[in-house]
Design brief:
heterodimer; A: mainly alpha; 0% strand; B: alpha/beta; Rossmann fold; 2 domains; 10 strands; globular
C-alpha cells in the first residue's frame, strides 16, 4: 500500500470539511439535536418512573444514543466521502489515477474513524455536562462495543458504495435509509424482547442488536454478557468480509459493464 | 495548416499499442477489434460521430472499462498486468471529468500530485499554475471558475506527472477559439519537451487537422480510415477533414470495411 495515496484520500476530505461549513457543521449538528430530543424524553421518563428505573435511564437511553451516533457517523463519513466524488464528477479522475482500490478502502476507513471519533468525543462531553452520562460505567465492555460498532458501520458503508457503483448515483438514498432501516432491529433504545417474534429472529442477525442488548445487561444487571459480544463479533467479521468482497465485485462488474462512466455522466 | 507537428520516432517501440481491441455489452458491439499504435512524440487524433466508440476506447486505455478482447500495451507492458505502474506515467483530461468543485485549485492539484507521487509537489504545482495562467485562482474554489478556467485546471492536473502518454477526450469542447488555440499550443509544447505522445479525441475537425500528426476515424466501433491528413486527402480526394469525415459517414457498411487501411 502506498501511504501517500491513502493520505490523498484523507486530505481530500479534510480540505472539504475546511471548505464546507455544512460538512463541518453536520459532524456535530445531528448528534446535538438528537441529544437534546432524547434528553427531554429521558427527563420526562425519569419523572414518571420508579426510583430504581430512574437511575438507569440516562445510561440506557442517552448512552445508547451516543453509541448509535458513533455507528451512524462512521457509516456516513465513509459513504459521503465516496458520494462527494460522485457529485463533483471526479470519479473518473480518481479511478484513472494510480490509486489502488485497497488504498481507497484504507483511506475511507481511516477517514471514517477520524470523523466518527471527533463526533463521538463531542457528543460524549456534551452528554456528560448535560445529563451526567458516565460511559466508563460500562467498564471493559466499551472496547468490544466500540470496535464492533465501527466494523458494522464500515460493512454497511461498503455495501452502499457497492450499490452506488452498480446502480449509479440514483441509489444514494441508501446512504441515509439503510442505517435507519437497521435501527429498529438494533433495539437501540428498548430491549429486543419488545419486538414481535418474527422481528426478534431477524434482529438476531444484526450485530448492533447484540451490542445494545449487551450494553443494557451491563447497565441494568451489572453483567458482561459474553454471548452477545461473541455473536456480534462473528456476525461483524462475516459482514465486513462480505461487504469488502461485494465492493470489489461491484468494482470489477463496473469495469466490465462500463458503469464507472455513469458515475460522472448520469 | 498544422500547428508545429512532431514526427514519430523510428526504431523505438510504440508508447501505445492496441491490438484487436474490442468491447461488447451483451449484443451491442461498441468497439470492434481495432488496432493502432501511437509512437513517441506523436499526436494522434481519434475522430468519429457520437457512439463511434471513442470514449469507450479512451476508457479502456485508462482501465476504467475492461476490454472484451484484444490487448493494450503501454510503454511496452500489458496494461492489465501493471495497471498502477502504467497509470502513474500517463494522464488524462476530459470535459466531462471535472475536479472537485468545492476544493480550491491548489488543493485539487495537491491531492492529485499525491496520487501521482510527485516528488517536489509545491514546485510542480507552482510551475503548472504559472504555465496555465492559474496563479491568481490558486485559492479560488474550482467550481467558481468559468468552464474555460476549469478546463485549464483539468489540463494542469493532467501534466502533474509529466506524462509520457496523454489521453485527451474533447479537452477544448467548452473553450472559445482563441483560448482553445493557446491551450493546444501549450499542450503540444509541453508534450514535445518530454517526447510524450497524445491521443486526442474531438468533434472539432479543424482542431484535429491543426494539432494531430495522424488521424484515426471510427464509425460504429470500427476504424474506417487512418493516416496522415495528406494521406487521407489523397485517399478520399477531398480537401479538408470535414469533407472526408462526411463522405466516410455517408458510406454504406461494406464500403466502409474496404476503406480500412491498417498502418
Amino acid at each position: 500500500m502506498n501511504r501517500q495515496h491513502i493520505w490523498a484520500v484523507l486530505l481530500r476530505n479534510l480540505y472539504l470539511v475546511r471548505r464546507s461549513q455544512y460538512r463541518a457543521f453536520s459532524l456535530f449538528y445531528w448528534a446535538t439535536v438528537e441529544l437534546f430530543l432524547w434528553g427531554f424524553v429521558t427527563l420526562w421518563l425519569q419523572d414518571i418512573s420508579t426510583p430504581d428505573v430512574k437511575i438507569t435511564l440516562v445510561a440506557t437511553v442517552i448512552g445508547a444514543l451516543v453509541f448509535w451516533d458513533l455507528f451512524f457517523r462512521v457509516q456516513q463519513s465513509l459513504t459521503l466521502a465516496f458520494l462527494e466524488d460522485v457529485w463533483s464528477r471526479n470519479m473518473l479522475n480518481v479511478f484513472a489515477s494510480p490509486l489502488r482500490p485497497r488504498e481507497l478502502v484504507a483511506g475511507y476507513i481511516l477517514l471514517s474513524l477520524l470523523f466518527g471519533f471527533i463526533s463521538f468525543v463531542f457528543v460524549l462531553v456534551l452528554a456528560f455536562f448535560l445529563y451526567a452520562l458516565h460511559i466508563w460505567s460500562l467498564g471493559y465492555y466499551i472496547l468490544p462495543f466500540v470496535v464492533n460498532l465501527l466494523f458494522f458501520g464500515w460493512a454497511l458503508g461498503f455495501v452502499i458504495l457497492g450499490f452506488t457503483i452498480r446502480y449509479g448515483p440514483s441509489v444514494e438514498i441508501l446512504a441515509w435509509s439503510l442505517p435507519v432501516l437497521v435501527q429498529p432491529l438494533s433495539a437501540v433504545f428498548y430491549p429486543v424482547s419488545i419486538l414481535p417474534p418474527l422481528l426478534q429472529k431477524a434482529a438476531f442477525f444484526i450485530p448492533t442488536m447484540h451490542l445494545f442488548e449487551g450494553m443494557r445487561a451491563v447497565v441494568l444487571e451489572g453483567r458482561f454478557d459474553v454471548g452477545h459480544v461473541v455473536w456480534a463479533s462473528l456476525l461483524n467479521v462475516a459482514y465486513f468480509a462480505l461487504a469488502i468482497v461485494f465492493f470489489y465485485w461491484m468494482l470489477s462488474l463496473a469495469r466490465r459493464r462500463g458503469l464507472l462512466s455513469r458515475l460522472v455522466m448520469d | 495548416m498544422q500547428e508545429s507537428r512532431l514526427p514519430g520516432s523510428v526504431g523505438i517501440p510504440p508508447i501505445l499499442k492496441v491490438t484487436d481491441l474490442a468491447k461488447s455489452y451483451k449484443h451491442l458491439t461498441v468497439v470492434d477489434r481495432i488496432s493502432f499504435q501511437v509512437e513517441e512524440g506523436e499526436v494522434v487524433g481519434l475522430l468519429g460521430p457520437n457512439g463511434a466508440g471513442k470514449t469507450t476506447t479512451i476508457h479502456m486505455l485508462l482501465s476504467l472499462v475492461k476490454p472484451s478482447g484484444g490487448s493494450i500495451q503501454i510503454f511496452g507492458q500489458e496494461l492489465a498486468k501493471d495497471r498502477e505502474g502504467i497509470l502513474a506515467r500517463m494522464n488524462f483530461a476530459a470535459g466531462y471529468a471535472a475536479l472537485p468543485y468545492n476544493l480550491s485549485v491548489y488543493e485539487n492539484l495537491n491531492i492529485f500530485s499525491l496520487l501521482y507521487g510527485i516528488p517536489d509537489r509545491r514546485a510542480k504545482i507552482e510551475q503548472l499554475l504559472q504555465e496555465f495562467q492559474l496563479t491568481r485562482f490558486r485559492k479560488q474554489r474550482t467550481g467558481a471558475l468559468s468552464s474555460g478556467e476549469q478546463t485549464r485546471v483539468g489540463l494542469a492536473k493532467a501534466f502533474l506527472n509529466d506524462p509520457k502518454l496523454l489521453l485527451l477526450d474533447e479537452p477544448t469542447a467548452s473553450l472559445d477559439p482563441s483560448i482553445a488555440r493557446d491551450l493546444r499550443a501549450l499542450v503540444r509544447n509541453k508534450m514535445r519537451a518530454v517526447q510524450g505522445a497524445i491521443l486526442w479525441t474531438s468533434h472539432n475537425m479543424q482542431e484535429i487537422e491543426r494539432v494531430c500528426d495522424r488521424i484515426i476515424i471510427l464509425k460504429q466501433g470500427r476504424i474506417v480510415a487512418q493516416g496522415t491528413l495528406e494521406q487521407l486527402r489523397r485517399q478520399f480526394e477531398q480537401d479538408d477533414l470535414e469533407e472526408i469525415f462526411v463522405a466516410l459517414m455517408a458510406l454504406p457498411e461494406p464500403a466502409m470495411e474496404q476503406t480500412e487501411r491498417p498502418r
